[in-house]
Design brief:
The structure holds two protein chains of two kinds.
Chain A (H helix, E strand, L loop, with lengths): L3 E3 L3 E5 L4 E7 L6 E7 L6 E7 L4 E3 L3 E6 L4 E6 L8 E8 L6 E3 L3 E6 L1
Parallel strand pairs in A: 2-11
Antiparallel strand pairs in A: 1-3, 3-8, 4-5, 4-9, 6-7, 7-8, 9-10, 9-11
Chain B lengths: L3 E4 L2 E4 L5 E7 L6 E7 L5 E8 L5 E2 L8 E7 L2 E6 L8 E8 L8 E3 L3 E5 L1
The chains are: A mainly beta, B mainly beta.
Chain lengths: 112, 117
């Protein structure tokens, strides 16, 4: 069935460096994407979202890029901090059902 | 902002017993709530969509008689794991939609760690 997947299960970066987390999606009808951060033992926390009519969206230290041609989504975190260590999920909303479908997830490890 | 409260945060039960997990929207009304299950180092898997005043819609492969969902009010949905077995041990997370926030309104509870012994 339709799914949203991630390329890398674990990403390790040095504190202060920029992080890039990638995601591939398969449902070409999806028009809304969200990045979530999940810390151990907690529920997902909204980070940033983007609609399909946009290529880029920036937040505080985070940027999401959307390439609809290749169905690729990325999350960029600037000046990564130890507090950014968590699992990051991309998710898409099925425009027909309203269901929020999660991708595989990437564990971000920030080394001091 | 929208807050979803999930209770209990942790529960240990014996095999064969049933466990009820509550999901409450504290400052908004949620006609739709979602229940997810997450195994260690895996993603969130959608189990079912809970609709206020009507039957839940279950995803393929999820046993509706085992995972009973009740959404009797606009602020409360419950998931009951019946006749629990060790393989039901998992992290269960609910999400409620706050229509006042549009598409951003998917707010998650803090999850329930279920351990069946």
């Amino acid at each position: 069935g339709e799914s949203v997947g991630l390329h890398l299960p674990t990403l390790s970066v040095q504190e202060g460096d920029n992080s890039i987390i990638n995601c591939a999606y398969s449902n070409s009808a999806s028009d809304y994407f969200i990045w979530y951060k999940q810390e151990s033992g907690k529920g997902p926390q909204f980070i940033i979202d983007i609609r399909s009519n946009m290529d880029k969206r920036q937040g505080q230290r985070v940027t999401v890029l959307l390439n609809k041609t290749v169905k690729h989504l990325s999350l960029q975190i600037a000046a990564t901090q130890p507090g950014d260590s968590a699992v990051y999920f991309c998710a898409e909303i099925d425009s027909n059902t309203g269901k929020l479908i999660f991708g595989q997830g990437t564990t971000l490890q920030v080394k001091p | 902002g929208a807050v979803v409260s999930q209770h209990p945060s942790r529960v240990i039960c014996k095999s064969g017993t049933s466990v009820k997990i509550e999901c409450r929207s504290l400052d908004f009304q949620a006609t739709t709530m979602f229940w997810y299950r997450q195994f260690p180092k895996q993603s969130l898997m959608l189990m079912a969509t809970s609709n206020e005043g009507s039957k839940a819609t279950y995803e393929q492969g999820v046993e509706k008689d085992k995972f009973l969902i009740n959404h009797a009010s606009l602020t409360l949905s419950t998931l009951t794991v019946t006749s629990a077995h060790p393989e039901d041990s998992s992290f269960y997370i609910c999400s409620a939609i706050d229509l006042g926030q549009g598409d951003r309104g998917y707010t998650f509870g803090s999850g329930t760690r279920l351990t069946v012994v």
